[in-house]
Amino acid sequence: MHLITLPIILLLLSIPGFNSASVSSLECGACSLLVTHFELKIAGVDPKKKIEVGSFRVSPTGEQKGLKEIGYARSESHLTEIIEHVCDEAKHYKLVVNTITGKSVYVHKDATYLKGDESSKMRSRLQNACNDFIDSHEDELLTFLKTAHEEPVKQFCHLEVGVCSSVDVAALPPNEPPQDETMDLSDIPDDEL
């Protein structure tokens, strides 16, 4: 009887989504890290800041044609500056279980109150995956980031490149512990105050 059930169990565990406590792939974590960090850096730029792009050739008459002014935040120049050190952000990430979906996901340590794996080994693997992701998807990523999106991580990592499942990009619980986990002075006995 055990010989029959073991293959069935192994087959069920190999089905995506069957194991609700499964871990998001490193590639998905890297993609999420990249898009999230880029969007934070883009949001930090003054929207009025502009940059000239196009042809810088000067005609024989001394005119410069083909230049246009675009927003600096989503310019290729700015995005290229960010990409140089973006994977270093892995040192600020942790692996937590999303209490809504039951799946472990990589998130910035300030994104949630949830406790998780913040080991240097996990962060090193995430940083390596980030560098590998850039090697494989740099052009797609930079093209995607040139325009704003409502849910950029979901749009790019799930819908565009398909490295994340819909469960991987599901919202985290609000960034505050549930009320039953917090204490206030009324929870402490009077003789201990």
TrEMBL record:
Signal sequence segment: 1-21
Entries under Gene3D superfamilies matching the protein: Saposin-like
Limits of the DUF3456 domain: 27-158
Upper lineage: Eukaryota, Metazoa, Ecdysozoa, Nematoda, Chromadorea
One Gene Ontology cellular component: endoplasmic reticulum
Identification of the protein by name: DUF3456 domain-containing protein
InterPro entries: CNPY, DUF3456
Keywords: Signal
Annotated spans, Disordered: 173-193
PANTHER family registered for this protein in UniProt: MIR-INTERACTING SAPOSIN-LIKE PROTEIN, PROTEIN SEELE
Protein family per UniProt: Belongs to the canopy family.
Organism: Caenorhabditis nigoni
Acidic residues bias (residue ranges): 178-193
Sequence intervals crossing the membrane: none
